[in-house]
């Protein structure tokens, strides 16, 4: 699994000029991606479902300039998608891997998130993290962490996640590519 680093972010942004100035992340967790984004974007939003993680990490992130939202991405992301009238780098993360301490199992929100973003008309960058969990990359993930088999069995929506399906939400996109552990669609 390739980490989401400053170098990886720059690699993704280099393919889309001009680069968006706003970053929206689903799943704050402990704030690593949020802090990384604060160094690259003018405005950074992050959405966290877990109340405990939100309370623990949002004060420090807000002090650094992030705008932290607490709630379900199926509710919070549409609000942001409607209110931000410019291109956005959408970092869709926290889709329940076994490393996510704040995991709340239920229907995978990814398809709802993609549907809402597909309604935007801006040249956004949509970046879906955790390619290692996609059905096309699953064998390597299970070899590395066998406990994930239960996660995938209990959440069958994961069996429908792959780059072509993600890209299909954005007809006419300029490019859809996997870079490291991220699936990226450039509109």
Any key phrases for this structure?
alpha/beta; seven-stranded mixed sheet; 187 residues; 8 helices; 19% strand; 37% helix; Rossmann fold
Short structural summary:
By secondary structure, the chain is of the alpha/beta class. Helix content is 37%, strand content 19%. It has a single domain, classed as Rossmann fold (3-Layer(aba) Sandwich), CATH 3.40.50.
Describe the structure.
The protein is an alpha/beta fold and 187 residues long. The protein has a single domain, classed as Rossmann fold (3-Layer(aba) Sandwich). The protein has 8 helices and 7 strands. The chain has a 7-stranded mixed beta sheet, with helices on both faces. A hairpin with a 2-residue loop joins strand 6 and strand 7 (182-186). Helix 4 runs parallel beside helix 5. The radius of gyration is 15 Å and the shape is globular. Mean pLDDT is 87; it is low at 97-102.
